[in-house]
């Protein structure tokens, strides 16, 4: 079982209630003579409609960061801007290009 680190949540009220949850996902790569820890990002969106119906959408991008501090900084940024699973890939790509 993978350990996900919950970073926080945001909500939007629009055609029901949308709950966004943000996670850092550590990944471990074990090869001969090296152990590498990398961090991915996961966004989970839950739309709660009137009447209680729930629709969930999730997007995860693996191996984005080499240190937890950078992953946390990014998670705070996307949480503040209420990034959804649909836009996560574009936001990650733009972030990586802007930091290189």
List the main descriptive attributes of the protein structure presented here.
100 residues, alpha+beta, 4-stranded antiparallel beta sheet, 2 helices, 4 strands, 28% helix, elongated
What is the strand tally? 4
- Residue share in helices? 25-40%
* Ends apart, CA distance between termini: 33 Å
Shape: elongated
Compute the number of structural domains. 1
**Main beta-sheet annotation:** 4 strands, antiparallel
Radius of gyration, taken over Cα atoms and rounded to an integer in Å: 15 Å
Residue fraction in strands: over 45%
Residue-averaged pLDDT: 91
Q: How many H/I helices?
A: 2
- Read across the widest sheet, the strand sequence of neighbours is 1-2-3-4
Structural class: alpha+beta
Tell me the series of helices and strands, N- to C-terminal: EEEEHH
Q: Uncertain spans, ≥5 residues at pLDDT below 50?
A: none
A few lines on this structure:
With 100 residues, this protein is an alpha+beta fold. It has helices spanning 68-80, 85-99, and strands at 5-13, 17-31, 34-48, 54-65.
Describe the protein's architecture and organization.
- This protein is of the alpha+beta class.
- The chain has one domain (5-99).
- The chain has 2 helices and 4 strands.
- The protein has a 4-stranded antiparallel sheet, with helices on one face.
- The protein is elongated, with a radius of gyration of 15 Å.
- The protein starts with a strand and ends with a helix.
- The model has no long low-confidence stretch (mean pLDDT 91).
Topology:
Layout: E1 5-13, E2 17-31, E3 34-48, E4 54-65, H1 68-80, H2 85-99
Antiparallel strand pairs: 1-2, 2-3, 3-4
């Amino acid at each position: 079982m993978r350990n996900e680190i919950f970073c926080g949540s945001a909500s939007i009220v629009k055609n029901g209630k949308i709950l966004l949850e943000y996670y850092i996902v550590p990944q471990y790569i074990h090869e001969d003579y090296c152990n590498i820890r990398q961090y991915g990002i996961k966004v989970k969106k839950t739309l709660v409609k009137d009447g209680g119906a729930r629709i969930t959408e999730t997007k995860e991008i693996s191996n984005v960061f080499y240190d937890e501090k950078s992953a946390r900084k990014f998670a705070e940024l996307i949480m503040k801007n209420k990034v959804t699973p649909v836009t996560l890939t574009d936001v990650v790509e733009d972030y990586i290009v802007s930091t290189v």
